[in-house]
């Protein structure tokens, strides 16, 4: 395997949604979510460019089951932009649950991009919201910075990491997901589906020990 130049100015590490609510004990816990933090910190140090994504919903967000009478977490409903899976209330703006994990140690991160801020629209992807129209601005940021290669780590592999990776490919970036620095929710076969969709889209799926800084 050729060395990967993680220190290149054209490469970034995107650290996705490593927030208290996605950690065991949180409102939408991803099994083993806390286990990746030391590895993410270590990987972070080998990248020049680090960006974090943060799920950041207003109270009463459309993706919360509690916002829809008679609905329960993990139900599917129809919203104007299409099908939406409903979740427990999570990552409400400015709450402890929405804060990045306290052990995340990425002092050189240059940008924290917040998503899911529109009360009516969810956004798994760090690039584009679920209406498939509203941009978060991250594509523009990477393009203006001359970044063409995006490594991704974080939570949840089968939701926010997958959709971010698919969108990264869609706008033409090289997209690499570091699997052992991710954990998934895995409901209704979501993990198998995510692996297949990422492979089909040309996302490279690697392990952290495949990265030898160039
Ligand atoms: C996520 C469900 C709802 C994630 C965010 O970060 O994967 N999943 N909001
Ligand atoms: Zn969310």
TrEMBL record:
Keywords assigned: Hydrolase, Metal-binding, Pyridine nucleotide biosynthesis
InterPro entries noted in UniProt: Isochorismatase-like_dom (IPR000868), Isochorismatase-like_sf (IPR036380), Isochorismatase_Nicotinamidase (IPR052347)
Molecular function as annotated in GO: nicotinamidase activity
CDD domains with a match to the protein in the record: nicotinamidase
EC number assigned by the record: 3.5.1.19
Pathway: Cofactor biosynthesis; nicotinate biosynthesis; nicotinate from nicotinamide: step 1/1
Coiled-coil ranges per UniProt: none
Domain Isochorismatase-like: 11-209
Superkingdom classification of source: Bacteria
Xref: NCBIfam families: PRK11609.1
UniProt similarity note: Belongs to the isochorismatase family.
UniProt-recorded name of the protein: nicotinamidase
Native organism taxonomy: Bacteria, Pseudomonadati, Pseudomonadota, Gammaproteobacteria, Pseudomonadales
């Amino acid at each position: 395997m050729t060395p990967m130049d993680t220190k290149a100015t054209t490469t970034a590490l995107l650290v996705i949604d490593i927030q208290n609510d996605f950690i065991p004990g949180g409102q939408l816990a991803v099994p083993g979510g806390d286990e990746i933090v030391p590895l993410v910190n270590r990987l972070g140090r080998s990248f020049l460019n680090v960006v974090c994504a943060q799920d950041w919903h207003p109270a009463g967000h459309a993706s919360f089951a509690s916002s829809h009478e008679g609905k329960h977490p993990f139900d599917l409903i129809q919203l104007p932009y299409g099908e939406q899976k409903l979740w427990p209330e999570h990552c409400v703006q400015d709450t402890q649950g929405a804060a990045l994990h306290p052990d995340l140690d990425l002092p050189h991160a240059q940008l924290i991009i917040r998503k899911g801020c529109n009360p009516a629209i969810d956004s798994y992807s760090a690039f584009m919201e679920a209406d498939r129209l509203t941009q978060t601005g991250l594509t523009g940021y990477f393009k203006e910075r001359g970044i063409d290669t995006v490594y991704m780590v974080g939570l949840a592999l089968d939701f926010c990491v997958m959709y971010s990776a698919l969108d990264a490919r869609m706008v033409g970036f090289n997209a690499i997901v570091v699997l052992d620095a991710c954990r998934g929710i895995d409901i209704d076969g979501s993990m198998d589906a995510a692996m297949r969709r990422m492979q089909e889209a040309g996302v490279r799926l690697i392990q952290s020990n495949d990265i030898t800084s160039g």
